[in-house]
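User: Structure tokens for this complex, please. No commentary.
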Amino acid sequence: MTAATPTPGAGAPATPAPLNVEALRKDFPLLKRTVNGRPVVYLDSASSALQPQAVIDAMSRYYETTHANVHRGVYATAEEATALYERARVVAGRFVSAPDPAHEVVFTKNTTEALNLVAQSWGRANLRAGDAVLLTEMEHHANIVPWMILSEELGGLDLRYIPIDDEGRLVLDDLDRLVDGVKVIGVSCMSNVLGTINPVRHIASVAHEAGAVVVADGAQLVPHSSVDVRDLGADFIAFSGHKMMGPTGIGVLWGRSELLSAMPPFLGGGGMILDVKLDSFKAAPPPARFEAGTPPIAEAVGLTAAIAYLNDIGMDRIRAHELALTNVALERLDEKLGSDVQIFGPPPGDDRGGVLSLAYRDVHAHDLAQVLDQFGVCVRPGHHCAKPLMRRLGVQATARASLSLFSDEHDIEVLIEGLLEAGRLFG
Amino acid sequence: MADLEELYREIILDHYRSPRNRGELDSPPAHRVEGFNPLCGDEVVVSMVVEDGKLADLKIGGSGCSISQSSASLMSAAVKGKPVEEVRRLISTFKGMMSIHEAALGPDGNGDAGGAADAESDPVEIDLDKLGELAALQGVVKFPVRIKCATLSWNALAQGLDEVGAEAS
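Assistant:
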């Protein structure tokens, strides 16, 4: 297994070797299942990815042989559990090339909690009523609502938004003006609706010149492409274990040491203190400061296994596979369904991930997804927790098919078969 | 595709394609209630006029999936012009059909009505004959996520009747 992370900014590498998808599919027990008499066609990895057997086994083995609470006991299994948990932190940090993973990686419940942590801890300490926060029109609610909650608590923040163009890219012509006076920018690395991969590096450099801090939502990009936080330029990045083939219940927040060190605690409780008296407490340094209570230990073990699995395949190969399949999917949908199908988001290219939000004729997304379920096809209907974006797109809901390293052309064919059936049914 | 045909019966597709009582009444005098399904973004706007104990007029606005919109249309056809008490009984019967475990509908009911049952509604005797065309929506029960779609307009109507009643008293 190679755990090496690709060198940042090294330019386009030689074409990565193609994936042996047929072999990889055997790693995922859930793909053996049938639904409504059809094999599962899992096109919902943007919502939550499937787990390879290696992740499931690692977690079972942990519970069977090692489990104990961490950072407390002195017996052998407690020491082992602590070591595994802290190793997961380093593995997760290295996965995004964090310079000091042992101190800069905070485990949370998920991306949402990580973003709330930044808003509540960094935000409360650094923002005042009237301060400007710049977000984008394509943000997930998880990078909008925490800032709105903070706004209510602080007596009003000036919430601004970077608009999107009709192809679903951020309009950055006006960025200099938009960032003027802004204290923090929240930006998604990759849209969970449009698949747009945003130029976070460029936004971060403009933001830093304006003195703003950048909070990147990496939930969609980190599982599908190599990400290097030193190259990205963001000050915080959040991502989720379950979207990268790890378990649910664990998320990652990476933040710059100097920012984390200056931040007050988020949740209070055990594990996050140095001392507690009847009238005061002294907080532990990061990352413990932000990890009150028993953390997701087995989940951390599962995350380590998931990252090993991804690294073993290679993030560049995964990205190349998904990009190529996105192109095939867009072509096949156009060939078979023509103008009956509308795909939101930019045309295929380097700034697009394998997320296909679609509208088919005037069949509502829920009805599409219901018909697709009869074909074993798992897609996500709805607003994808991005209602401001849906309003901008002028739709109530889309049906979203999202690709994974185990997705193949057959999956796309079954998707098309299901869409055609929905067309017949709804006339 | 047998399950699908049970869900998307012809009556449902007909009401979806040609919704009855579509639009909004001027408010005031009409009472207006909005219902949202936060999961999928479906929305329904029920505007209603209650006069002399009757639901004298109502119209349905909003947009959403075939189940939410056809259920709203079927509801409007069933309740318009009816005495409020009768409308309330129908709401209760319809919600009973949606909330009670499907096993309770058949002779082999194992009494396991607790799981999916709506905590608000008491167990009701479900007489599908009384529901008329509305019985076409019973296929929804097999698809639990869609029950919220089917009951969206009914909850809005119930809320509207409560609010009108509170204003009157």
